[in-house]
Queue: 2 jobs
Job 1
Amino acid sequence: MQTENLNEKTDKVVSERVIRRLPRYYRFLGDIMLSGMERISSRELSEMMGLTASQIRQDLNCFGGFGQQGYGYNVRALHREIGLILGQDAPEKAVLIGVGNLGAAVSMYMETHTRGMELCSVFDSDPQKWGKRIGGLTIRSMPDDFVKVCKELSPSVAVLCVPKDAAKQMVPFLIENGIRGILNFSHYDVALDYPKLKVENVHISDSIMTLRYKMSEK
Amino acid sequence: MQTENLNEKTDKVVSERVIRRLPRYYRFLGDIMLSGMERISSRELSEMMGLTASQIRQDLNCFGGFGQQGYGYNVRALHREIGLILGQDAPEKAVLIGVGNLGAAVSMYMETHTRGMELCSVFDSDPQKWGKRIGGLTIRSMPDDFVKVCKELSPSVAVLCVPKDAAKQMVPFLIENGIRGILNFSHYDVALDYPKLKVENVHISDSIMTLRYKMSEK
């Protein structure tokens, strides 16, 4: 019988596709936990999530199992473990740059909805915005205050909500100041020019175009 | 010699992964066009985009070629054709529901940055918001005005910027009123319950979690 091995994470490299499914597991398990269910089989979970049971077993095995054959998964333990894998207990410090409409919305969102990242400051290059409040944060100056904040708080992540050209110009400066990861809302393909940066893109216009394409499909 | 066959689209089913790359081709080709370059080889394009040349040839072949061997691609023609494939010339009518911070930002974004979708109305269920302006649009009532607008304008796409439970409750009503596609910013997995709807998810919190995970990788 396979035993629970909650903390024996395997060292093998986990594919990007598996990683991309983890936040979804985490969301579903959070909801299942709230519903009061204590154990869940891979079959039940697969039906809820629209994946195959073997896919689920395979995904979770990448991180060392969690399950006990015939007994299913302990929902709370699995949720907690995936949370730990996703670093929900150890937030990275983030700063947001570019407080236009989208930047402001993302800033409010990150302040209220996010674990795993702690938004500690927001910046804009427009002097008219300096000193104004957005949620619980004050808009500070780019680049002067940015350098100070980086020295003081050592944020590791920048949330880029600026136009493409500004983003391209800005990235070397961010790296100089200790930024190692980018949540990229701009149209600049950061990862191409800086393969060592950790980059996650949110290209809303690409999603709109993809949906538009799908609307024409039979 | 392979000839240009700009309009002979093949009927074969195009994989989701190829479709997801098209908006990126479109963006890059738009920039290349602006830079004044008239022709580009698959090798040059591959270097700019971080794909292999054979990948690019394979992708573009799905839609019937566009290239002329040894001469490369005509940038303007390729950009135009991909734009046509993506429906940029024939926008779908869209409505946005849920004008919170994120909804407001997405609304402003869609009004100014988007072709292929035309945002024609925004809705909220909070009476305090009715009648207020967001960009060039007036916030209208959900569900009353929504029914009227659907009769009048027949929008096909709904942009969902409401919380998960509200989204779940709302989707059958949207379908009744003619909505066939969802740009889904909510945490509700619409596509699971309604496999016939065209759905494109923008899960910002999943992107944040994925980036958080990557930050811990060696």
Job 2
Amino acid sequence: MARPRPLSGFPEWLPEGRIVEQHVLDILRRTFELHGFAGIETRAVEPLSELVRKGEIDKEVYVLRRLQAEPGDDEADPAKQLGLHFDLTVPFARYTLENSGHLDFPFKRYQIQKVWRGERPQDGRFREFYQADIDVVAEGELPFHYEVELPLVMADALAALPIPSFTIRVNNRKIVEGFYRGLGFDDTAAVLRVIDKLEKIGPDGVRTQLEQQAGANESQVAACLALASIRTADTSFVAQVRALAGEHGVTDAMLEEGLAELERVLATAAELNPGVVVADLSIARGLDYYTGTVYETVLNGHESLGSICSGGRYDQLATDGKKTYPGVGLSIGVSRLVSRLISQGLVEASRKVPTVVLVAVSAEESRLESTRVAAQLRARGIAAEVSPSAAKFGKQIRHADRRGIPFVWIMQEDGTHAVKDIRSGEQEAASPAAWEPPVADLKPSVTLKETGANE
Amino acid sequence: MARPRPLSGFPEWLPEGRIVEQHVLDILRRTFELHGFAGIETRAVEPLSELVRKGEIDKEVYVLRRLQAEPGDDEADPAKQLGLHFDLTVPFARYTLENSGHLDFPFKRYQIQKVWRGERPQDGRFREFYQADIDVVAEGELPFHYEVELPLVMADALAALPIPSFTIRVNNRKIVEGFYRGLGFDDTAAVLRVIDKLEKIGPDGVRTQLEQQAGANESQVAACLALASIRTADTSFVAQVRALAGEHGVTDAMLEEGLAELERVLATAAELNPGVVVADLSIARGLDYYTGTVYETVLNGHESLGSICSGGRYDQLATDGKKTYPGVGLSIGVSRLVSRLISQGLVEASRKVPTVVLVAVSAEESRLESTRVAAQLRARGIAAEVSPSAAKFGKQIRHADRRGIPFVWIMQEDGTHAVKDIRSGEQEAASPAAWEPPVADLKPSVTLKETGANE
């Protein structure tokens, strides 16, 4: 077997990179659990028919077949074909419906899993990647306050990560839909889809497409672009939108409702976590199912990476005909984030292995003794491994050094034990039943190297 | 959308079941890290050509294609087709070769991921399931002592789980191959494959197949069956095998080497973890690549479940033509284990959510105040959520009770705070800056209900 090469779009990390990724995943899980979200996992596959219901995304689905499938098998029946999930929202909707009789609503869940998309791989775009989602879903009615709270949960999670500072940009579908309707558009979704491309195609591109796809006149185009240009760190956007609406003679009840909601999001965020959430009236989110607050998040100084945490409110995550399940949720693109941290060397893991102590072996005959020392350390929560061989002491030190293992345990000829910090070279007498490493050395640490870290 | 139904072979758990699964996964990871194993993850896919190199398993592979793949795309080129991995060994071998220049050998890694097999689902047999693997792989030469140590790492891991007691059954390929060769068989692998089916087809089935597939005579069949019947909890198997070999005139250097190795595994295990490891000369392990010690593990009283943790030593996990990478590893079938625990009600999670405290809301106007209390608790590591609505107090208690949340936080009209243990009904004055729940309540606990637990 010749040396294999990486598959484009399917990122893998060396052990030191995996420590970074695992650290990020641990912090996310910890934060979500502190907020009372229950963890679930769904299977990797969904019926293809469920995956392609939203036309937008069907190009990207990976379909499965068994290598030895035969005519008459499930795989030959299009109604029974399975595909890999491309996000965690479609599976969560299905899970909610399937188990609604066994879940307690409002149901707060987090879900951290890999998803797959058959897209052409690019920088920050993968075919296999981790998403970390939180959603609250209700049976019947979902209180508005969750639209205020969920981005703040994500703000807590992101603030705990070794990443640069970030900004959560928030908008409300009711504002833009109400405004567009007030401007005289019938197909507000078409307008929204064009505005969603603003960053990519620029104002001139938007103008052309609005004219062609939504039959917009010059005044309407100007109003749409003006609305999308409103960004405020406080609730002053309300006055700006009202002024713009006044100029264009727009009055709409849904617009007013949206303004009140977004104002509440901004005001509460300013109380609880000042400086993190801003109003950005250009945020559209392409997916049609959002109906209220929508969110995007950028890393400050890494805006080109795109949004690392997005989501919104949907009135109908799922319905079984009798009941509907409205919800609100956000999703972090973990792999995109971790890939940036690793590939640009923004973070550093303190070592490549979990081991705190390498227990040296002075002769193969005494390996059992070294093994007992390691077991005593482990029993007290100190990760320990025994040297692979009774090589010269210098070689055993190098084994530890190459992996970043901070301590080497030595059983001396007189029967006493000592532990050596190989970073400082300091050595002290120690007992395997009592010695404790500094707390900072207990686990590999991951630190942000860049200055201007997220405080 | 009608209520969806579960997909056979793709297990999913309700939140309380996921707490059990997550608890098991956490303990495994924790134990592996305490022993100094570095965690890695590999992508879910491998080139199909790599997956089907071992003929035995090719029926089970799921092949991927993009829904919109066109002629000329990678998916149309058989050499570039991708399949889902069916175990974690093939991907680990590929990862080792691909990154050999960046890894430190001997490389100890753990890997906990889902794998997929297109098998017909049955009890304990899934199409998607978790495996938890540990392996040590060396460049060039792997010291024998790892064959002694690795099953003891798994014994530590399994002993920490909420499962019944277990037995690790060990054999050595050199014993059986040397013995078969000494009996006059040329194709020892063929004999091994038949013996591997002993439990399934019984002695008569083995007799027939040995005669047909290996040309065995009556004395050879008797010798093979006699060898497979040797099971000892100590090193007395050595004398039994030697006696049997003497009866049949078998002398073989490899047999002697295998006996010495297995003796060392049993002797060391008896020193470090008495009663867990037994010698069982019937253990064959179907896969051809094992070359030394082989392992299987059964849950005592649940032998019908089959092996929950298996593996062995292989001289050549991978080779790039210049270097070879021998290793030894074991794999736990986590889903098989967890499914048994959940479906037979052997374990119980103390609650359905991570939340320790539900902070009550007396009126929607004071939600912010409740949110601040929850934030204070979280800052000290206490999982807290705020009540979804300012409903009657009894309804808020029921919200906690249904989920198993042990404490409700109450802000009283006089401005003081109290916390109520809803299990006992006891209520005490409390400050969000100082109150601590009992340590046992900090996280959901998972306990084995069955008597005869693994001590």
